[in-house]
Here is the input.
Amino acid sequence: MNSWERFVDAFFNVKVMAKYLPDIAYGMLVTVELAALVIAAGLVTGLALALVRSLGFRPLNLLIIFVVDLFRALPPLVIIVFIYFGLPAVDIAPSGFVSTWLSLTLVLMAFSEEIYWAGITSIAKGQWEAARSTGLSYGQTLMHVVLPQALRLTIPPLTNRTIAITKGTALGTVVAVSEILGMASSAVSNSYNPSPLTMGAIAYLILFFPMVIFGRWLETKMAWKR
Amino acid sequence: MLQTFFNLEIVGAAWRIILAGLGNTVLLSLVVVPLGLLGGLALATLASVRNPWVRWPLMAWVDFFRAFPPLVLLIFLFAGLPFAGVELGGFACVCIAFFLNTGAYYGEILRAGVESVPTGQSEAARSTGLGRLQTMLFVVLPQAVRNVLPDLLSNTLEVVKLTSLGSVVAMPELLFQARQAQSLTYNPTPIVLAAAIYFLMLWPLVRLLSRLENRALAGRG
Amino acid sequence: MAAKPIAGSIVQARGIHKHFGALHVLKGVDLLLAERELVFVIGPSGSGKSTLLRCLNRLEEPSSGSVMVDGVDMLDARTDINHARQRIGMVFQSFNLYPHMTALGNVTLALRKVAGKTRNEADTLGHAALARVGLADRAGHTPGQLSGGQQQRVAIARAIALEPRVMLFDEPTSSLDPELVGSVLGVMRDLRESGMAMIVVSHEMGFARNAADRVVFMDEGAIVEEGTPAEIFERPVQERTRAFIGQIQRH
Ligand SMILES: Nc1ncnc2c1ncn2[C@@H]1O[C@H](COP(=O)(O)OP(=O)(O)OP(=O)(O)O)[C@@H](O)[C@H]1O
Ligand SMILES: [Mg+2]
Here is the structure.
């Protein structure tokens, strides 16, 4: 075997790949599930926090700002490790899946709240005044006039941030979640061949590359409209 | 509750270990942030060449690493490459992974910054006889950096947080040390302590960022 | 004690004071507006004209005083302010159209959400309002596709679609290019001829001369002088009024 053949045998071993393809496919399913749950819960709770913040109730707002700052400052892996290895000390023992989901949701909540909030505050005061002068209530103005405009502004930064945080599902492997990286790693130790890692890498690209391209497309599209 | 999550006895026993971890996290950050910036600078400078044969592959490169979870990259280098006879060790793997991953992010930000500087600026510089690289370094980049400073800082925050991945490849940084201390003491206090340190270290940056970001989006409305 | 409404007057503001922190912006302003009357308000920048208008529909909370509009006490906590505001149309210097909606969407939003009309009813009324401002054919355009003058006319349509009893205009033509001012003033004149009671803050002295029943000169948060256009423009009594009129006529 020359060195090229050895390289191919190590990283693109067809036999090993065929054998572990179902495992990786299963890992992809888990990753997609985890990612979807993180995105849904994170974006919704983030928006909820931003809406509560817009009510301008000061003690509550200080609390929201603190929570948001906390989950922006903490590395996601630290949060995962705390929930998975720390909480059992008080007899709460979430699974690795739940720990990862909860952690990433909190992080996405924090980042998205900040983005939504920036969007809401960037809408000119005149929009509020015009709507209120026609008799729309605070809530109606927020729902029908301010939010639609604010959300448009937030879409590009929100998309990019969501992708970056959702990629963190790979961290689940540290707490034994059977997502792509976890499946690939155990396949590597079982087969003593790194080809499953290659497959895992491809699997991640299949999932996230389109999202990155989509984010880029959104950014240029919005930039022209501006 | 306090006894479990913030046990002062455990703090007393573990603080040396944790502090050593903090030192390594700071050192690691001081290595990988400049490394990533260097990678990004190279990418942005290359991308300023308005030749599609240069730009498109560069974009693909950047998007590739933006789509790739950094942990997967790190594991690939750390656990995959040895099969090809390349043993790099944790530190080198972390450095390479960060160079590629955060370099792509910094590169994307700096590229947007460079594009935000009007072409008249480089034309003016070139008309005074400055070379291509000089124009880039002394005229375009300083303005570009100023225009995208919030994004650069925000990415730097992410990079420092990402150093916690080093724990997966046994780098003795803050999280790794905290986990060591936790398994020695059977108590989550060290992890809480590490989290508190991360928070206190990064909070000022988070505060600053949230001000800058609010202003940036407001400018678009 | 709420002031008793005077028969025939649609707006009664009495003793309005407004403080912004230490800044005393309105110093006891009284303003009555009769049915079908057009009052024109002039005064130097910062004299409190906008603040006065905004106190009338409570976009700004007066520090003290009373405001009755169409027999409704605007400052009474029991008043449904959102309902009351429908009777008071307001037009802003910067249009403030909703950029994410069509012209028709702008006009019908409050009809549907506050006046409780169905979408069909609202659309019918919306088209009628747009026709009144001469924009029947622009219903499907977004604000970005309209000129400034057209945008301001949509804003007027948004207000009149709610069938207000009084209209407040805060410098409606100040951010328009000169050639677009005429179309907006034309709509305002039609509105006046239909009998709408109006308070207009503006620098369009020509419009004031032709259309105003009364001109009010404000300075430093108080009404200094009021009278017919002829009285204020040709024979002002107060020194400050004379100085202000002289200044704008020189331009
Ligand atoms: N929300 C506010 N907070 C603090 N001060 C304010 C506020 N709104 C207005 N003011 C101040 O109140 C004073 C009167 O403002 P107002 O807008 O009513 O004047 P104006 O007569 O409409 O002037 P212009 O002709 O420039 O529109 C000004 O000194 C202004 O700075
Ligand atoms: Mg004004």
In short: The two ends of chain A are 59 Å apart (CA to CA). Residues 14-54 of chain A form the longest helix (41 residues). Residues 17-181+194-225 of chain A form a domain with the MetI-like fold fold (CATH 1.10.3720.10). Chain A has a mean pLDDT of 91.
